[in-house]
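To the wet lab folks,

You asked to see what we're planning to order before we commit. Fair enough. Below is the target structure as tokens, and below that is the sequence we designed to fit it. If anything looks off to you, flag it before the synthesis order goes out.
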């Protein structure tokens, strides 16, 4: 996450938009689900 943020913020015209799109649609939903599960476990 940190590396992607740096590439987007400082890469200017070198950003791979296909990779960003793939990350948004494939990786973030899975990450969201995992974080939600962790939060549910620790709230109990």
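Sequence we intend to order:
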């Amino acid at each position: 996450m940190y590396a992607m943020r740096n590439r987007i913020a400082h890469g200017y015209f070198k950003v791979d938009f296909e990779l960003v799109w793939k990350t948004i649609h494939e990786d973030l939903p899975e990450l969201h689900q995992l974080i939600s599960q962790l939060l549910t476990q620790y709230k109990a």
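Structural context that might help your review: Residues 12 and 32 are 27 Å apart (CA to CA). The helical segments are 2-10, 17-43.

Thanks,
Computational group
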